[in-house]
Amino acid sequence: MSAGSARGALGRYGEDLAERRLREAGMVVLERNWRCSEGEIDLIARDREALVICEVKTRRAIPFQHPMEALSPAKTARLRRLAARWLSECWVPRNGRLPHGGVRIDLVGVVLPGRGAPVVHHVRGVG
Questions:
Q1: Maximum distance among all alpha carbons in the chain?
Q2: Torsion angles phi and psi, residue 60, rounded to 5
Q3: CATH 3.40.1350.10 is held by the domain 3-123
Q4: pLDDT at 26 over 60
Q5: Which residue ranges make up each domain of the chain?
Q6: Phi-psi region of 111 (alpha: psi -120 to 50; beta: other; left: phi over 0)
Q7: N or C: which end of the chain has fewer CB within 10 A?
Q8: Which family does it belong to (predicted)?
Q9: DSSP, res 67
């Protein structure tokens, strides 16, 4: 298995765990891996009246940076642009208006230890 395909499998596994966490928190997942020419949104969900743009970061435990440290200001700005594009291309045509509860950016960090269960952290409103 190449490094790219191993990284892709790791990312998909982390997104599976993140999606499960969001659903357990009562959210409705609307889309996964939405792509356009400007980039990708990992998960798009609805949390009551709010739309949630969710970035998922998955890391092996050591020696890599903790996933919660991986959301830079530039990445947050890109997620905001992607959210605006998704709203204009997908949400508004279906619903005729913006979401009543606004838009929020969440981060789900998944750490895979050498042994034991993955650790999933969900932080709401990171950007």
A1: 48
A2: -75, 155
A3: yes
A4: yes
A5: 3-123
A6: beta
A7: N
A8: Belongs to the UPF0102 family.
A9: G
pTM: 0.88
Across-strand partners of 36? 39
| CB-based burial label for 5 (10 Å; 0-12, 13-18, 19+) | exposed
Report d(CA 38, CA 123) in Å as an integer: 24
Q: Where are the alpha helices (DSSP H) in the chain?
A: 3-24, 73-86, 92-95
Q: How far apart are the first and last CA of the chain?
A: 35
43 Cβ contact partners less than 8 Å away, ≥ 6 residues apart = 15, 18, 19, 22, 29, 31, 32, 52, 53, 54, 56, 108
Under a CB-based contact definition with an 8 Å cutoff, are residues 42 and 14 in contact?
A: no
Query: What's the Rg (C-alpha) of the chain?
Result: 15
3-state SS class at 38: coil
> How far is C-alpha 76 from the geometric centre of its chain's CA atoms?
11
| Residue environment code for 55-65, b if the CB has 16+ CB neighbours within 10 A, otherwise e | bbbbbeeeeee
| Exposed / middle / buried, residue 88 (Cβ in 10 Å: 0-12, 13-18, 19+) | exposed
